[in-house]
Amino acid sequence: MVMRNRAAWLPWALPAIVLVTVFFVAPFLLNVRFAFSSWTSFRAEITWNGLENVRTLIDQDLLANAVTVTVLYAILCMAIQNTVSLSLALALQRTNRLNTIFRSAFFLPTLISPLAAGYIWRGLLAPDGAVNSFLGIEWAWLGEPSTALVTVAFIDAWKWSGLITLVYIAGLNSIPKSLLESATVDGAGPWTRFRRVVFPMLAPALTFNVAVTLVGALSAYDVIAATTGGGPGDHTRALNVVMRQQWGQGFFGSASALGFTVTLLVIATAVPLVWWLRRREVTG
Amino acid sequence: MRAILKYTALTLFAIPWVLVPVWLVVVNSFKPAGEAAELGLGLPRTWAVAENYGIVLDRGGYLTGLLNSLKVTVPIVVAVVLLGAAAAWAFGRSRSRWLQAAYFVMGLSILLPPSIIPTVYLLRALSLDGGSLGYVLTMTGCRLGIVIFLATGFVRAFPPDLENAAAIDGASRPQVFFRILLPLLRPVLFVGGVILIINVWNDFFFALFLLQGSANATLPLSLFQFASGTLQSLNWNLVFAHVLLTTLPLVAVYVVAQKRVLAGLTEGSLKG
């Protein structure tokens, strides 16, 4: 029969395969070459230069700081986002009218572009803005080295929390009710039920969300561009911010090296997480 | 009693989390520049609605941005959903090793960040740089992975009996695809499509590198250019008016689709 003919499947997948290969895989492979090549706006020729780009970035004190800022940013973002989203999901798990209204309301920030989110919070957190006047203090949240990074990470987390909340609600709803009921019969209180039943059963959703938020935040750019532009000093200058600056100055090879560093960080984060998830599936 | 406590806490949280940010944008977009510079939450002492929105529409490049955003978002979403569903059908049903290897690569494309600088190089080599076609092709290539991944899981969860029966009855493959497979995949494609619309509409990073000149600028780009034009002291009233107009189309889409999006996401239609 036609449907069993193997070769006949190829045309259905081919357009997608071609698009992904040309516009995702090919740039990915080219990046490995460009990261180790001399390529600037002053000399169009692209020639292999080994670790020269990396050395230049280190000499200019750009690389180590950017990696530290990016990793810290990703961890802060992940922590804030998952704490808020899991708490909201636990409160809004049951589907009823009131909860649906709240879910909709908390989803709203997800519709706002990260760039716009940056402008909105830059306004709210201005030294004479609404947040400070409520707290009765005057503090440049985005201008002070001690709070700039955590504030930008908070804005990023704010923007995505609505979506992550829904993934947690789906995870909570997939826990069999019988399991919770038998735990109650056995005398487990709400906290014990959460710790012994809900939390372990929520592991797949948790792993997924932690991975997605970490990997997403490693590529941070938009919120930073709208709020601090990398400042004060270099306190929020993440890898992609430096990449854009290098690109703008015509150092295309160095910019590629910075992009490649983001890729390496993502691989270093994602591989152990996926491996752990796979192992859980096998043993669990 | 506990319910009252819970909803009081939720409301108290929702005020600074959702209500105040939205209110700040709306109310300050109605104020004249000097008053908006105070960034207060009070009602305008002088209303400047027509002036502000007039300037954004006129100088802020809003209408061009809106048109450009539509011009790229529609083709990307249609291409990703249709090509993604077709590929998911093949990946879900075929046992060919080559296709399974290709499926693995699609999975990698979800996780790994796109390499933006070589993309610019590539588009230049293909004479596609700066314009919307190159942007559409790139975004399609980078966003297909997630839809394919979700839809393939969905295809595999269904036995192929229905498709086989239709084939025996003489239906051609395209007929089976459009009449049986697409309706079957509708829940997952719907949720995936809405997330994709949000993602593409709000994209700034790709647009910044791939779209040149204000003639091609999408809404996030035009917002950035508009805000950066006065970087020393933002004209908050105008920036917020632009933010509001940029977000409004998505809010409209969401209001129409929210029931199915929320239900789809929370009841796990993504799991197949």
From TrEMBL, chain A:
* Keywords carried by this UniProt record: Cell membrane, Membrane, Sugar transport, Transmembrane, Transmembrane helix, Transport
- Is Transmembrane a UniProt keyword of this protein? yes
Pfam family example for this protein?
Answer: BPD_transp_1
Q: Name one GO biological process term.
A: transmembrane transport
Q: Which residues cross the membrane?
A: 12-30, 71-92, 104-121, 157-176, 197-221, 251-277
The protein's superkingdom reads: Bacteria
Family under the similarity heading: Belongs to the binding-protein-dependent transport system permease family.
Task: Report what the protein is called.
Answer: Multiple sugar transport system permease protein/raffinose/stachyose/melibiose transport system permease protein
Tell me the organism. Answer: Streptosporangium saharense
TrEMBL record, chain B:
UniProt KW GTP-binding keyword:
no
Q: Would you tell me the Gene Ontology cellular component terms?
A: plasma membrane
The yes or no answer to whether the keyword Membrane is present is yes
Write down the InterPro entries for this protein, in alphabetical order.
Answer: BP-dep_ABC_trans_perm, MetI-like, MetI-like_sf
The record's keywords, sorted A to Z, are:
Cell membrane, Membrane, Transmembrane, Transmembrane helix, Transport
Q: Name one Pfam family in it.
A: BPD_transp_1
Q: Where in the cell is it found?
A: Cell membrane
Q: Name one GO biological process term.
A: transmembrane transport
Membrane topology note? Multi-pass membrane protein
User: Where on the tree of life does the source sit, at the highest rank?
Assistant: Bacteria
Every copy of the ABC transmembrane type-1 domain together lies at: 66-257
Which Gene3D superfamilies does this UniProt record tie to the protein? Answer: MetI-like (1.10.3720.10)
Q: What is its main location?
A: membrane
Q: Where are the transmembrane segments?
A: 7-26, 72-91, 103-123, 135-155, 176-198, 236-257
Protein family according to the UniProt entry: Belongs to the binding-protein-dependent transport system permease family.
- What is the protein's name according to its record? Raffinose/stachyose/melibiose transport system permease protein
Q: Upper lineage ranks? A: Bacteria, Bacillati, Actinomycetota, Actinomycetes, Streptosporangiales
